[in-house]
Amino acid sequence: MRHNLIEPGDNEDITNERRGSSFSVGKLATFIHGGEEKFRRRQEILKFVEAQEDFQDPIPPEFMSRKERVENNARKIIAMTNKIAFIDQSDIFEEGLLFQSLIMGRDFHAMSLHYGMFIPTIQGQTDDDQLDYWLPLAVSRAIIGTYAQTELGHGTNISKLETTATYDAKTDEFVLHTPTVSATKWWSGGLGKSSNHAIIPAQLIINGSNKGLHMFIVQIRDLKTHMPLPGITVGDIGPKMGIPGIDNGFLIFNNYRIPRKNMFMRYSQVLSNGEYIAPKHSKLRYGTMVFVRSLMVRDQAMQLAAAVTIAIRYSAVRRQGEWKPGLKEVQILDYRTQQYRIFPYLAQSFVFLFAATEVKNLYMRVNEQLSDGITELVQELHILSAGFKAVVTWEVAKGIEQCRLACGGHGYSHASGLPEIYSFAVAGCTYEGENIVMLLQVARFLMKTVKEIRSSSAHLAAIAKYLLDDWKHKSSFREWQAAKYEDLVEDFEQAARNQIYFAYDYMQQLQKDNHSPEEAWNCASVELCQASRLHILCFMAKSYFSRIVQCTEPEIARILDLIGKLYLLYEISTHCYSFRKADYMSDEQIKNVKCGIYEILGNLRPEAVAIVDSFDFSDRELHSVLGRRDGNVYAAMLEWAKYSELNKTEVLSTFKQYFGPMMESARSKI
Amino acid sequence: MRHNLIEPGDNEDITNERRGSSFSVGKLATFIHGGEEKFRRRQEILKFVEAQEDFQDPIPPEFMSRKERVENNARKIIAMTNKIAFIDQSDIFEEGLLFQSLIMGRDFHAMSLHYGMFIPTIQGQTDDDQLDYWLPLAVSRAIIGTYAQTELGHGTNISKLETTATYDAKTDEFVLHTPTVSATKWWSGGLGKSSNHAIIPAQLIINGSNKGLHMFIVQIRDLKTHMPLPGITVGDIGPKMGIPGIDNGFLIFNNYRIPRKNMFMRYSQVLSNGEYIAPKHSKLRYGTMVFVRSLMVRDQAMQLAAAVTIAIRYSAVRRQGEWKPGLKEVQILDYRTQQYRIFPYLAQSFVFLFAATEVKNLYMRVNEQLSDGITELVQELHILSAGFKAVVTWEVAKGIEQCRLACGGHGYSHASGLPEIYSFAVAGCTYEGENIVMLLQVARFLMKTVKEIRSSSAHLAAIAKYLLDDWKHKSSFREWQAAKYEDLVEDFEQAARNQIYFAYDYMQQLQKDNHSPEEAWNCASVELCQASRLHILCFMAKSYFSRIVQCTEPEIARILDLIGKLYLLYEISTHCYSFRKADYMSDEQIKNVKCGIYEILGNLRPEAVAIVDSFDFSDRELHSVLGRRDGNVYAAMLEWAKYSELNKTEVLSTFKQYFGPMMESARSKI
After folding, report:
1. How much is the pTM?
2. Sequence-ordered list of residues with C-beta below 8 angstroms from that of B388, at least 6 positions apart, any chain
3. Average pLDDT of span B610-629
4. SS3 assignment, position A561
5. Which residues take part in binding FAD (chains A, B) (predicted)?
6. Percent helix, strand and coil across chain B, each to the nearest 5
């Protein structure tokens, strides 16, 4: 399995790269994907997907119009769910994500929210009768549902959603209504044209009194004709930066009536006489969200890995510039600036992938504990997943775009796949909790912790224990080869601790200077975000370290060590002022960090193609002309371009209609 | 003119913002746009454009397919050039860019290269007979031409282009040929479907000897039928990340013959007997490129200004979150984190706009000097324009994307205009000289300068004079209000000087450690790029300062001062390690820089809407539902969505074909 990606007819440069690497791609791939059985399953799933006729695209999706893409996705999502039994459905994290990505590509589809939100919300929010009624309908695909929470004017602060559900005791019904334009439901996936049902969070009004947000299940289109029901206005919200294959929708209610039993009543109830029964206690219901975020982060890490794979493979076959006259042009992968643009994101892909697994495992542990009534880790996990999501999605977006730019002009073409990867991944900075809001949630937790520490009442979550440790006043870092992970992690902890206490003290000072607590929080919020980022970095560093110590193969351990060191030094360099502060590191040490990065880049250079081969992307999954396994990029680009909409006719209508007459008239005058 | 943007029916929040600002929008707009006459012309041009029926789009372009967009642009570019006499054609920098942007939007078109490259190359490279023949044809629009330099496998290093032009003395012709797939001409705008002529740089071969790259003008399509001529294969290269309205093309020659006189012969000639006459001296021909870059940077700065305008206006009308229960939700512009995301880019827009003008003026001065035979400033200008382009395009791309993310979910919709602004502007990081290559060109100049200084032979260009100054060992910065521009500029110079000499010494060290000069350059290249960036920052800082001292209105001067300070402190904070290094600034000073930023953000907050109003974007030019002057965003989004391709029918075909049968079959089984 050592050089298993080499085949006859491959581009010579990429073959030489594969021959020149020092380790077994199969072994690293097995380590990345969590063991031989999992690695084997990846091949099986790929083979299965490639064999199904109804999983195939008639033309590459990037050449489809939005409508064609929506139609193609509709066809494929039915085919996919028809054959879902092929994969282990208890393993959404790995098998599920891979299966979906191989079939649906980098896009959502009409039923993304049916599976991601509609069914889970039914499972979590209904009473027993409701569950018995709705769940079979949803699971059997007898109805298509979505979850319509956000409104045109309302996102994160859901308590201010404007849609109302007013109880009418006379008819035993709720009247759903959209009182203003800004109350229009907006963005929900599959809402525009595909769903005939939606779960609607709305303000519950009984006898003029607002009982707060509750959830209602609503039929919005006729089951037979699929026409919107009277009182419903619904449609697509129009083109977006990416993710064209899903009909994100809007929805307006005009005094639309639904039966009382369509309010989900697991926690609160409305009786037929209008009596309101409040929930017994406000439940901690972080579970689904945390799981979705760990799924999301795994997918994001894979998107970054894909971008890095494309950029590195292309940089191996692209030659440009000369070092010595008369020699062949240089492979652009040889340029330190090119390595510096790409390899740190290669390192991040590993760190994020491993950390996503750790968060998922933590989620599993918490779920087990919860069934025993132990809630100790719930808040920690919630905070961790929020901060983790914010840091990862932003780094991934930056990294993909750097990879794209590193491919020069061709990176701008959809042939590279990179514009689509970027527009797909960057949406993650906004959905499932806007990143800045997430960072401030983490900061809220950190400030509470510092306050408790200062008042000696702290009961610290494991992830925050380092805040209690003694301050280290001087980094022991000398040079990268000799640096120990434990010491580097301590450096990260010190930088984080320093920033976290700084932010706390800064807020205290602002309050002494007559700012209200809210103002002080706001004025310090940029520093608070930085505290959260450094806090999350500590988690990443520790998490990577705890994973790679499990590696028993020296040839692989060497690669993982280079990658880990690059990650750590690059992050120190990125935040180097935080490490330089209070003379924790000297100028000399910072210089050694930077020079260490350049040396590691040089060490990774001959391994780079083999490392990205180890992510085990098939050409199908990668979907990139620039990133093809065989490296035969240019001929493939020419082939690809033939699909262009403009190439369907040799002469465009613009000639007859516009340019032909213009030129002829000018020629007649010369 | 104080509050001239307020109209009845406007969103209340945005009106309050305009009422609450401290200065006259008209006065700031006049200052930005270079005087009352220029400001007046902007209004005239807008009015003219709005009155021309043939300049209008039938539907917003973001709802068009690529083909529709290409057709619409073809129609409009003819209409635009028909009426070009309305503007002052000697003022491309301001009137030309505005006119084009109002009519063509953020897109290129079939004749972008005809005007941008084809005509200028004819002007620069032909002998007199050739000029007399080709220029009237091009200018009168009797032919459409493009410039086809890059090939599939070759970009920046043009000496390695593969296309050949072999002289055949028997027929007095050149034979153009594409010897390999990687020699396929690729990317040229308008080449795919629109142009019938192209200028082709190719290797000139005479009697088996390669004379290097020369330019040839080639007819590629029949004038009457527009069919590709025999021996020519040509087409569109397929969809890209953005800029859909232009047919970037590919071109393959199969031993295609052209007359000898189609080689441009201003500098070298080929006689009919095959004799080659080499150019007398290799000319400095930076002129066009420098001018194109200063145009480009002005346009980039305006794109950033547009993004900032959208983000700030939307942040004024978007309310989310509560500081005190019971009060209205907070305008998101009140969040310091939101200000921190957007306002530094507001400041950059000003700095870049003013610097673009300075580069343009320098270009004019150099051109005057050149006609007197003075070449002193040519290299300086060339280097400056390269570095300036690299720094500006990257900051602009980052800034636009931050503005987009700051608009939350709606920023992801094409309704915001931001995805299009981003994909249009970010291409600038790659074309007209890839950014990293540009930074390394600047570094080459800086290292040569240091070497000359060290060997006491330096004849320094004005822009590099500070490299000779005495080193300053301690910044005098205390707090932002009291800080003087001169001192801050010195801080920048010291940081740049420090980094430039550091990079030089690092290279020396590497050479002592047995690296070849090429290896040493490569190993140090990341530090070299950083040296170039800091060098360019010094120019920006000085250039802004020299512009705003011309402001005579105190109310405007105050705003320009806040903007300038924000720019400078933000850049210090971004590169804060470079300022902390060698204890040039202390931790306390860095803290004051950061706290200074937060305070300036607070000071700019009430002025922000009025400041962006001063950019004087019409709704037509801004083309953003989120950035509308009137702030009535939500109703307009709903209107906008009605154009969606998916909303043309109430029920999509996916229901009848896929989802209907799926659901019906499931229901029949329940």
Report:
1. 0.97
2. B293, B297, B355, B359, B536, B539
3. 98
4. helix
5. 150, 189
6. 60, 10, 30
DSSP B472-490: P-S-----TTT--HHHHHH
Q: Which two tokens stand for residue B160?
A: 């390695």
For residues B467 and B493, what is the distance between their CA atoms, to the nearest angstrom? 8
Give the per-residue pLDDT at A273.
Answer: 95
Question: Which of these, A391, A351, A399, A305, lies nearest to A627 by C-alpha position?
Answer: A305
The alpha-carbon radius of gyration of chain B (Å, integer) is 28
Count CA atoms closer than 13 A to B469's CA, side-chain side: 18
The pLDDT tens digits of the residues spanning B352-371 come to 999 999 999 998 998 888 88
Verify whether the Cβ–Cβ distance A658 to B78 is below 8 Å. yes
H or E element in which residue A288 lies: helix A287-317
* Cβ atoms of residues B167 and B223 within 8 Å: no
Q: Which pLDDT score is estimated for A283?
A: 52
Distances (CA, A) of A49 to A57, A466, B470: 12, 47, 68
Please give, rounded to a whole number of angstroms, the shortest distance from the CA of A259 to a CA of chain B. 21
> In this complex, how many residue pairs, one in chain A and one in chain B, have their CB atoms less than 8 Å apart?
369
Q: What residues does CATH 2.40.110.10 cover in chain A?
A: 143-279
pLDDT in tens, B553-588: 999 999 999 999 999 999 999 999 999 999 999 999
DSSP string, B288-339: HHHHHHHHHHHHHHHHHHHHHHHHHHHHHH-B---SSTTSPPPBGGG-HHHH
Residue B626 and residue B633: Cα distance in Å, rounded? 6
pLDDT-based confidence at residue A1 (cuts at 50, 70, 90) = very low
Q: Give start-end residues of each CATH 1.20.140.10 domain in chain A.
A: 286-459+483-631
Kindly give, in sequence order, each residue whose CB lies less than 8 Å from that of residue A278, ignoring residues fewer than 6 positions away. Answer: A211, A268
Check: CB of residue A269 under 8 Å from CB of residue A277.
Answer: yes
Q: How far apart are CA A356 and CA A360, in angstroms?
A: 6
Q: Residue B284: is its pLDDT beyond 60?
A: no
Q: With an 8 Å Cβ cutoff, are B635 and A67 in contact?
A: no
In this structure, how many other beta carbons lie within 10 angstroms of the beta carbon of residue A252? 21
Q: Which of A432, A490, A493, A621 is catalytic?
A: A432
Q: A182 and B523: CB-CB below 8 Å? A: no
SS3 content of chain A, % helix, strand, coil (to 5): 60, 10, 30
CA-CA distance, B484 to B470, in Å (whole number)?
19
How close A409 gets to chain B, by Cα (Å)?
Answer: 6
Distance CA A220, CA A33 (A): 43
pLDDT of residue A417: 98
Place domain A143-279 in its CATH homologous superfamily: Butyryl-CoA Dehydrogenase, subunit A, domain 2 (2.40.110.10)
Catalytic residue list contains B432: yes
Q: Residue B362 corresponds to which amino acid?
A: L
Task: Tell me the two tokens of residue B375.
Answer: 């070449």
Q: Indicate if the pLDDT at residue A476 is higher than 60.
A: yes
Residue A284: pLDDT band (50, 70, 90) is very low
